[in-house]
Write a structure and sequence with these properties.
By secondary structure, the chain is mainly alpha-helical. 62% of the residues lie in helices and 12% in strands. It has one domain: Winged helix-like DNA-binding domain superfamily/Winged helix DNA-binding domain (Arc Repressor Mutant, subunit A). It has five helices and three strands; from the N terminus they run ααβααββα. Helix 3 (32-39) packs across helix 4. The relative contact order is 0.23.
Amino acid sequence: MSPGASHVGFLLGNARRRSILETLEGRGDLPLAGIAHLVRLPPPTARKLLGELAERRLVEPVGDKYRLTPNGVDALKQFTKSLP
């Protein structure tokens, strides 16, 4: 089982987490304010979700920006495969 497979349920549980990962996948490294704007979340909510994603090593802070990790890329791939 790939590392991302264990995160499918976590991503299924909150569409905003998936939106953040998809945004970082499509746009590259972004600051908190940019993520909040693109995903249409208040910055405190985006910060909380980014913290949850970082705890699972799906994203990582790099300076003042966030980056999708290889585990995050794999989690998105596994999530997509799990869809009907």
